[in-house]
Every structure is written in C-alpha cells, then in structure tokens.
C-alpha cells in the first residue's frame, strides 16, 4: 500500500510507505538542511585528520579518520534511506529530524577530541542521540505500515541494542577501543541486511541517487573551501608564489575531474534491486571518505611546500594521490556495470588509478594528479563518443 504524505494535515500524516516510482521526487528543504549541518562534522574530521597527519602521526590519524568518518557516514546514510521510504514532512517527522541534526552537531564538536586524543565520549553521545531519534522514526513507521511492520521493528530493535553497546563501550579500557568499535560497526552494517529480509522498504532510486550526489557535492565543496583557505594563508605568509599556484592549479583540475567523473554516472540504473543498491550505498563510504581526504591532502601539500609539517616529500604527495586514486577506483567499481561503457573505457580507469599513484614519486604530484584526472575524463568521453557513432552507422 502506498501513500502520499501530502494528503493530510501537516500536524500529523500516517507514516505509510511512499511509492518507489513516485513522480517528481526530489530532495526536500529539510534534507538539504540536514546535509548542510553534516558539513560541520565532515569539516571537523578532515581538519583534525590533516593536523594529525602534518605532525607525523600517520597511522593514528588514518585509523582515527576512518573510525570517525564511519559514524558521520552511517548516520547520514540511515537517515537518507529512511527518508526516501517514509518521509511524511509532518511536524513529528520534522522535530525528530531536528533532534538528529542536533546530534550531528554534537558529533561534530567531538571529532577533534576523538581524532587527536582518542576520546570518543562527546562524539558517541552525539551519535547515540541521532540513532535513538532514528529508532523512534522506525517505531512510528512500524505502527502505521503494517505490511512492512516486521522490517521496521527489526530496524528499531537492532539500532536500539547497538546504541546500548556504543554507550557501554565508553567504559572499556583504551586497549579494547578499536576492537569494540569494529564489532559494533559490523553490527550496524548488519542491521539493514537483517531488516530488509523481512520486507523490503520502498526507497526511491532517483531520490537516493540525488541524495548521494548532493552529499558528494558537499564533501567536494568542503575540500575546495579547505584548500582555498590553505592557499590564502600560504600567500599571506610570503610563501613562494610559483609552488603554491602549481598546487592550487593541480587541486582545481582534480576536483573538476572528480566532479565530472561522479556525475557522468547513471546511478538510478545501478539501483535496480535491494542487494545491488545496498552494496552501492555501502560502497559510498570509500567515495565520501576519499573525497573529504582530497581536501586534507591538498592542505598538507600547501603546508609542505611552505615548510610546515613533519612530512617527507613522498608522504605529503601520498596524502593527496592516494585519496584521489581511491575516489576514481570507487566510482568506477560502483557504476561500471550500469554505465555500459565500451571495454576500452573500462580499462582507462584502472590505468588512471595506477598513474595517479605513480605521480607520488614525481616533483609535481598534485599538478600531475590533476592532469591525469583531466585526461581520464577526456579519454573516456572520446571513447564513448566513438562507440556511439559506430553504433549509429548502418551495418
């Protein structure tokens, strides 16, 4: 049974499943506001990662960044898929979403402590607030959507139990912190798999693709902002103009190419069934983390060029080239089946990944990466165009 959430009073609308083929389904103003508030968490995580990396704490910073970003990504992702299936836009729904936003801001406030000092207490409380609000939303859906009640209850039960685990984790000694985090994170990842087996929720493919695209834009935009501030600071400190401009140009070319690469894909075609869509959604963890790390890597290279930080040339270069390579590989792997690219075009992406990594050992890694990423876009467009022309010719 489907239901349009806009047929009843704004005070309360029964939370029934929205139709997965609903016309003109786009992101709402509340969803955009939700994303905007998550920018704070992304920015804090990237900044703390960059500072730790610059001080030479490479392993600690990488691990902390991966853990912190999991919490950011997972809370955002769960809200997005729930909203696609059950957004009623009534007052209870809006209020619970605002609670989730408040939790996101608390999480953002705790990211520096988590990354710099391994203190996850503030961040955990922010995460738990977001997730408990999500439990309430699922219970509300279970109350009115009887067809998918079992699935909704599984979501609510699984999320609630795991939040008890996250709070209990705060009492564990530091030695068990990473292991317990991984166990709980695996539990979080398992809940949707378990819940969807009872009855699949009615997410909207085009809406989901748009939401993920918007968050990708936000993360890439945050990278541009961080890099712009770093370049301005370097220029204000009388740094060598030539080296800074070379890095800035390379960063600009790279971000342009990453944007082009992502939005060339036909994501709704990829979201054809529940299992594939789940893998696609989970796979975006690599897309989002690498996109945010690109900005941090650019800042690190600007700092390295101006004599700041404890990194070697190769470490500074790798802080930029590796995230770019991960982004290109992730987008290609997530979309290559749906894109229906010619064989040669599919070969171009692995070659580009290897070439980007090779620029780590060149004198101009950032500019080299930007050039390679730009060439990837140009070569792919050329190959696809030739294939289209060839297919249109009479036999």
User: Which percent range fits the helix content?
Assistant: over 70%
Form type: globular
Helix/strand order, N-terminal first: HHHHHHHHHHHHH
Instruction: Indicate the low-confidence ranges by residue numbers.
Output: 1-6
Number of separate helices: 13
How many angstroms separate the termini?
Answer: 48 Å
Q: Average pLDDT value?
A: 88
E-strand count: 0
Instruction: Determine Rg (CA atoms, Å).
Output: 22 Å
What does this structure look like?
With 395 residues, this protein is mainly alpha-helical. Helix content is 79%, strand content 0%. It contains 13 helices and no strands. Helix 7 runs parallel beside helix 10 (274-305). The chain is globular and about 65 Å long. The chain starts with 28 loop residues before the first helix and ends with a helix.
What's this, in brief?
The chain has 395 residues and is mostly helical.
Break the fold down into its secondary structure elements and pairings.
Blueprint: H1 29-54, H2 58-86, H3 91-117, H4 121-144, H5 149-169, H6 177-198, H7 205-236, H8 241-263, H9 267-270, H10 274-305, H11 313-339, H12 343-358, H13 365-392
Helix pairs in contact: 1-2, 1-3, 1-7, 1-10, 2-3, 2-4, 2-10, 3-4, 4-5, 5-6, 7-8, 7-10, 8-10, 8-11, 8-13, 10-11, 11-12, 12-13
Sum up the structure in keywords.
single chain, about 400 residues, mainly alpha, globular, disordered N terminus
